[in-house]
Design a protein that fits this description.
Blueprint (H helix, E strand, L loop, with lengths): L4 H23 L7 E5 L14 H10 L4 E5 L6 E5 L2 E6 L6 E6 L12 H12 L8 H5 L2 E8 L2 E6 L5 H7 L8 E2 L2 E2 L8 H6 L9 E7 L3 E6 L12 E6 L3 H9 L5 E2 L7 H4 L5 E6 L4 E6 L7 H9 L17 E3 L8 H5 L16 H10 L6 E7 L3 H16 L4 E7 L1 H10 L5 E6 L10 H4 L13 H12 L3 H18 L2 E7 L1 E6 L1 E2 L16 E2 L1
Parallel strand pairs: 1-12, 1-13, 17-18, 17-19
Antiparallel strand pairs: 2-3, 4-5, 5-7, 6-7, 8-9, 10-11, 11-12, 13-21, 14-21, 15-19, 15-20, 16-20, 22-23
Helix pairs in contact: 9-11, 15-16
Length: about 525
């Protein structure tokens, strides 16, 4: 059969389309299956030694263990510490500074055994200056040395005598392998190719191991069948990037998402209408504040005027005026800091050095030169409708002292660039998280050269107070230093301290979900798809 030129061209075109489709099919990856967790941002690193974003910190709980782990009691929802990689931890009966740790027979995800050298290496990596680990100062304020005695025995020497109940939380730092890809790891985890690769393809001992990382879309973890506690009940867990909070909720409604971590207090009523949704609530170690660019607002009296102008309870009716689920903060520390951690020492709120007083606020505004001034209050898209209402409430209250503020919603990337990188903002409504129960890393925000110092505050007295506070182990002295820090920061007023709100985590199609802290994955090995 003869074909004319036109027929041949058509056939060739069809073949090219088919081949092109086949090529697209090869490139296209099907979405993984398993427990689907919606997040706005995927991890930026999976190395627990180095600085990480919130998703990275959360994922650490899936991949790694400490000598001790924090766990959640499913019945009470309370947090407690429990031996993990350590089979036993025994304090020396004479030298109360020394603890001897015996390790469990545990395997790394690559099949090699955990050894005491891994524990010694991990502490060295956390405390190496080149790594600039966020945990460095905290660990060094407690621990003098970590030494491998033999393959299964470690000696931990604390700086001062420390009781077991206080030593356990310190020993929750995640253990990383001293060997990776058959090579000894350098203590400087930023220096070599092998060390840098560990951040994106890590090996841990945790209940899940990394299976796949599709950049910008999802990170998949598969169950570790040899996990020392028990094999996770879910075969896979997927952190899926879903930026828009409305889409996250719609995806849950359609049964495509099992867990939403980043939630908005304004959404709860609508979410509760979705069939079979469970709302897990807890008070996070976090708070809302307005950061003030002190270069643009250089007068402390002007900044204090903004603080005295705020009637925090009235900021968002039906949210900030509730009797439960909200903590109004009077300073940089949440006002329940002492009562929730050491009620046997102090069982009352933090002092209120800058109480709401409209008359005093107007005087300070005039003296501080902000009356009649114009400013822009930025807030990120991720805060959604809640952020819009909070910003509107702030704008109205600032107007009472003659400060003309315009609220401006912006994309998270732009917000982060302007606030954290360029520091080109004027006022910024922020959600600050990633703290422990004692807010031990607060100095990062207020030291002159703190890694999160976005306000530009620089005060030698405050630096000295943080130095002493971070090293103090006597509870009564620590309380006194905490109060001094609180007072000094209020005097400087580099930020406006608003509130801490009970946080909701929504789950659907999952059982055994117990969440008590900002890290939602403490009980992940028990989660089961219904």
């Amino acid at each position: 059969m003869k074909m004319n030129k036109k027929s041949i061209i058509v056939i060739v075109a069809v073949c090219l389309i088919v081949l092109g489709s086949a090529g697209a099919f090869v490139i296209w990856k099907a979405q993984p299956k398993g427990v689907m967790v919606a997040v706005s941002t995927l991890p930026d690193s999976l190395n627990p030694v180095l600085e990480q974003n919130t998703s990275g910190l959360n994922a650490d709980e899936l991949l790694f263990d400490g000598l001790v782990n924090f766990e959640v009691d499913e019945q009470s929802g309370s947090l407690y510490s429990e031996l993990a990689l350590a089979e036993s931890i025994v304090q020396d009966s004479v030298n109360k500074k020394t603890y001897t740790v015996l390790l469990r027979d545990v395997m790394w995800h690559d099949g090699t055994p955990l050894t005491a050298s891994d524990v010694e290496y991990s502490f060295a990596a956390y405390t190496d200056e080149n790594n600039d680990s966020p945990k460095r100062d905290y660990l060094m304020s407690f621990i003098k040395s970590v030494t491998a005695v033999d393959d299964k025995t470690v000696t931990v020497e604390f700086i001062n005598p420390i009781p077991e109940f206080r030593a356990y939380p310190v020993l929750t730092f995640k253990i990383v392998p001293s060997k990776y890809n058959g090579q000894n790891m350098q203590v400087n985890m930023r220096s070599g190719e092998n060390e840098r690769k560990f951040a994106t393809a890590p090996v841990g001992t945790g209940p899940f191991k990394l299976a796949d990382w599709e950049i910008g879309k999802w990170v998949t973890f598969e169950a570790n069948g040899t996990y020392f506690k028990h094999k996770p009940q879910a075969s896979n867990l997927v952190m899926k990037r879903v930026i828009d909070p409305i889409i996250r909720i719609n995806e849950m409604r359609k049964g495509r998402i099992n867990l939403i971590l980043e939630t908005n207090p304004m959404d709860r009523a609508d979410v509760e209408k979705i069939p079979n949704v469970d709302v897990n609530s807890y008070m996070p170690y976090a708070f809302y504040q307005v950061a003030i660019n002190t270069k643009l607002f250089p007068n402390a009296e002007g900044r204090q005027a903004m603080a005295r102008a705020l009637d925090k309870k009235a900021l968002i009716p039906s949210i900030t005026d509730k009797d439960s689920g909200v903590i109004l903060n009077y300073g940089p520390f949440p006002s329940n800091l002492f009562a929730s951690n050491i009620p046997e020492y102090v069982n009352k709120p933090m002092p209120n050095f800058l109480p709401f007083n409209a008359k005093e606020a107007k005087k300070l505004a005039s003296a501080g030169g902000i009356s009649g001034q114009n400013a822009i209050l930025l807030f990120p898209d991720s805060m959604g409708e809640f952020g819009a209402k909070m910003a509107d409430g702030l704008v109205k209250q600032f107007a009472e002292i003659g400060l003309n503020v315009e609220a401006k919603r912006t994309g998270d990337k732009v917000f982060n660039r302007m606030v954290y990188t360029e520091k080109s903002y004027e006022l910024a409504l922020m959600y600050c998280e990633g703290f422990d129960n004692l807010y031990s890393s607060l100095g990062d925000w207020y030291r002159s050269k703190g890694s999160h110092n976005i306000t530009g505050v620089a005060d030698s007295k405050l630096n000295g107070l943080f130095d002493a506070w971070e090293k103090e182990i006597v509870t009564s002295n620590w309380i006194d230093l905490t109060l001094q820090i609180d007072k000094r920061i209020c005097e400087l007023s580099p930020a406006l301290f608003l509130c801490s709100l009970e946080k909701d985590v929504y789950s659907r199609g999952l059982s055994n979900v117990a969440i008590a802290t900002d890290n939602p994955f403490l009980s992940a090995e028990n989660w089961k798809l219904k």
